[in-house]
Amino acid sequence: MVNFWKTSIRAASSPFWRMRRCEYFFSSTGYRPAKNGQHYVEGTLVPVVIPRSALQRLAMVQDLESGRWTEIDYLNGAIVKMGSEVGIDTPFHQSIVALIHAREQV
Which of these CATH numbers, 1.10.357.10, 3.40.50.10490, 1.10.1040.10, 3.40.50.1370, describes 59-105? Predict the structure, then answer.
């Protein structure tokens, strides 16, 4: 009997059944997922999301434009620090941090 429950639990938590549970939940709320990426971009992103967010500006851009210090050390800087602690080189993040710090000085 225990083996039956283990198998049932494993099957119920499989990606297929998780997807089915999500589909059931969303269909009961009236939500219809996009058919594919192009459908989402053309049907939702372009007419709805982009016009609503066109005037929004990233907080870091606002900080730079206002002459304030950014939170780059807490974002990409943290990745650089964690990488150096475990011996992983993070050249992309090091470059981003250096560029933002240089821009903060202007």
Answer: 1.10.1040.10
